[in-house]
Design a protein that fits this description.
There is one protein chain. The protein is mostly beta strands. The protein contains one helix and four strands. Helices cover about 10% and strands about 50% of the residues. It has a four-stranded antiparallel β-sheet. β2 and β3 form a beta hairpin.
């Protein structure tokens, strides 16, 4: 895989839930769950299933930082 995004988090898919047009793919990355909302077509094209290794790729122009009061 070659991709320009630098925020690649490797993990294992724990759940794929198909909706009417959009699917939610949950990926366990070191004990934290990241949920991606992607099209059902993308799920099918990539052959995504629970138990499969995958990357959560984050591409954003801004990242905010927050702290508790």
């Amino acid at each position: 895989m070659k991709i320009s995004a630098r925020n690649r988090l490797k993990g294992k898919i724990v759940e794929v839930v198909l909706g009417a047009t959009t699917a939610h793919v949950r990926i366990d990355v070191g004990g934290s769950i990241i949920t991606a909302a992607i099209t059902n077509d993308a799920v099918n094209e990539l052959g995504l299933v629970a138990g499969q290794e995958a990357y959560a790729v984050v591409k954003a122009s801004d990242v905010m930082v927050a702290v508790d009061d």
